[in-house]
Amino acid sequence: MAERLTDEQTWNSEGYAQHARFVSDLAGEIVVWLAPVRGERILDVGCGDGALTEKLAALGCDMVGVDPSQSFVDASRARGLDARFGDARNLPFDGEFDAVFSNAVLHWVREPEPAARSMRRALKPGGRLAAEFGGHGNVAAIVTALRAAALLHGGDTELAAPWFYPTPDEYAAILRDAGFTVERIGLYARPTPLPTGIEGWLMTFRKPFFDQFEGAVREKALADVVALLRPALCDTHGQWHADYVRLRVLARAV
Ligand code: BEZ
């Protein structure tokens, strides 16, 4: 087995735009749950390259974006947005937002309790949290194929899934403990077309898994993952879908 490499996900705003633009394009339902109102001050936690933050700003909302990737903060600022470098677990805001919004981010935060408390603290009393992220069962086929490839090639199965995919009950309890009342929460299967196929997805979101292998083993591990997934996730026209399951939640600061 190659020496264990870092599990750290790194972000590159250009690669993200090429392989993962669908993330912001498909956020319509959680924006409906947010129900943004012109003039509201809204914090976008994990704003990424700002594509969605910009759409909310265009509706007349006073947006602030926060992201732990400097590449994404720079990309958001290039759109003219107020984007700050920061971590969901330790947001530097106290009682100043009408709403906290987050799309496709909170599954990366493996310490959900401090993140929930930090988002709660950022809200005015009665303010709302509208969030969507990977829920229980998200990308289950992809994770299983990665684990199988790790076992086949003497790799580390832990590198297959560095994510937090809670059930609604589990996440609702975390939010209540942090001072929210939960108004709506549920899991929604959303098979998601992948514009650059499964390899584009794997290299955008799980490169650290493949980087644990070297040379020909790396190539073989990737080929094995693709072959294992093809029957489940690639249709007869060659279109790949990721087996996304979204957890959506609307909660209010008490
Ligand atoms: C998701 O949005 O569910 C997701 C994105 C990247 C990696 C894993 C999950």
Quick overview:
This protein is of the alpha/beta class and 254 residues long. It has a domain at 13-138 and 163-194 and 242-253: Vaccinia Virus protein VP39 (Rossmann fold, 3-Layer(aba) Sandwich).
Provide the β-strand percentage band.
15-25%
Name of the CATH architecture of the domain at 13-138 and 163-194 and 242-253: 3-Layer(aba) Sandwich
* Count of individual beta strands: 9
Give, in spatial order, the strands making up the sheet with the most strands.
Answer: 3-2-1-4-5-9-6
Q: Give unreliable regions as ranges.
A: 1-5
Oligomer: single chain
CATH superfamily of the domain at 13-138 and 163-194 and 242-253: Vaccinia Virus protein VP39
The structural class is alpha/beta
Q: What summary fits the major beta sheet?
A: 7 strands, mixed
Small-molecule binders here are: benzoic acid
Computed over alpha carbons, the radius of gyration is 18 Å
The H-and-E topology, N to C, reads as HHHEHEHEEHEHHEEHHHEE
Distance between the termini: 50 Å
